[in-house]
Amino acid sequence: MTPSAGTGASVTAGEVTRWRNAVVVAYAASGLAFASWVSRLPAIRDALDLTPGNVGVLLLCMTLGSFASVSASGLIVLRLGSKRTIRTGSIMVGAGLLLTGFGTSVLSSPVATALGLAVIGLGTGSWNTASNVEGAAVERAVGRHIMPRLHGAFSLGTVAGAGLGAAAAAVSLPVAWHLAAAGAVVAVSVATAASWFRADTTPVAGERTYTPDNFEDPSTGPIPVIPAGTPSASEPLDNKRKIAQAWRDRRTLLLGVLVLGLALAEGAAGDWVALALADGHGQTDAAGAAGYGLFVTFMTIGRFAGTLVLDRFGRVPVMRWCAAMAVAGLGLFVFAPAPWLAFAGLAVWGLGASLGFPVGMSAAADDPAKAAARVSVVSTIGYGAFLCGPPLLGLLAEYVGILHSLLAVMVMLAVSFLLSPVARKLA
């Protein structure tokens, strides 16, 4: 038997392996879904005859849906459990992909397309939080730092989705057919893989569910140990209390700020690297795209190497090195006197940004009984930076240029460096 660390239960090695593989599928499918619609944005723009401003409004619909979902994700996961949340989220994302494609190719309706992207955002936010809760649980069961590799699976999913999207565009496959197929694959694969999830059915040491008789004063009666996702009459009120406590927890908030800097570094690269290379370093559009590909490649390498590095050195030194590398790489990219040095800076920047989010999720879930609430708080802060930070950099770029606007990210990375000790594992 293999102990499920921190859960007070035991599972076999085979069950843990199937559990881990199922969570890998959930992460990879999320990356596939994201890259599928992103890779067809040029086709969506052309089919709907959109201006750059109109495209921005479409993206804002997805962003607002994601942020609303991730903000409520703690309550959702506590109420439904991570398995049902992930299944529901993946089905919503599949439906959103279908609607996005249908609105583009069949209805030629920007409103329908925007609604589809909003549904994708709503499904994605809670799905990602629940995946991090499930991933942290299987990480405790395995007894190793596997969260970086789970996020690496997301990165591989984005690579696969982008490749399939490029192939679909090359053969002029209608957006509706492409996104409908991607949505079906995502929904079916995740719904099937969720059968092997265990975070909701393995009792958690210290988890307490209050009954109506003892809610006002827990000391007046026995408090049973009940797995997450098991309903009770007082559960909604108890869940709101857990979320409120998580938002008042000093360590959780500091973890959120730690993740904020590194998530902003990742999000800023996705939105601005290609343009910064073209406008700031005089490179072609193709070279700009290649530069972002280089960043993603090294970020993926960092995530798959993260397990070994974290097992050997621990979270705090690794987080310090990550923040320092991200600062160094970003600084080299901004001030590089030659293009080849800018590309070298992207590689270092990608490695530095690779582990912030996965390590932050692991640290937030150190206490299994409070994992869902705390992960939702850190996710909300991190995703807020990831989604909202890059547009704000665009406003700053109007005054100082794209390259120098990225220096604002370095300030937040310096804060992440100073906050690295809060990632230390709880005793």
From TrEMBL:
What parts of the sequence cross the membrane?
Answer: 24-43, 55-78, 90-107, 113-130, 150-171, 177-197, 252-274, 286-306, 318-335, 341-359, 371-393, 399-419
Q: Which GO terms describe its molecular function?
A: transmembrane transporter activity
Annotated localization: Membrane
Q: GO CC terms for this protein?
A: membrane
Where would you say this protein principally sits, based on its record? membrane
The record ties this protein, via InterPro entries, to:
MFS (IPR011701), MFS_trans_sf (IPR036259), MFS_Transporter (IPR051788)
Which membrane topology term applies here? Multi-pass membrane protein
Keywords of the record, alphabetical order, are: Membrane, Transmembrane, Transmembrane helix
The identity of this protein, by name, is: Major facilitator transporter
Q: What organism is this sequence from?
A: Arthrobacter nitrophenolicus
